[in-house]
Amino acid sequence: MSEVADATEEALEIPQLYKYHVFACFTQRPPQHPRGSCGANGAQPLWERLAKKIEASGQRDICMTSSGCLSFCQAGPIMVVYPQGVWYVPRTPEDIDEIVESHLLNDKLVERLIVVPRI
To answer: Which CATH class is domain 24-115?
Structure first.
């Protein structure tokens, strides 16, 4: 049994642990959908900028993942940064720049862009 466990452990690729893992909603619903969507609210160019900024930083311990709906559609575009679980609502390319520079690279929250989801 221990040989099987050893072989299984060797076969598994353990994912890299990240200092920050960003999930950004890419959901696209029709413009008149009652829930709205991040995509319909202009998320795509913001997330493209976010991905480029993270890549350009050279920080291998920061990751961005495209996600489906994060369930706060009316607030979108919306993203969440883990491990803290900080929710941001960036509206402009400059907001993205500030989140990357302040939070992701210098560990300082961007208070003006934080939202607290109500459950």
So the answer is: alpha beta
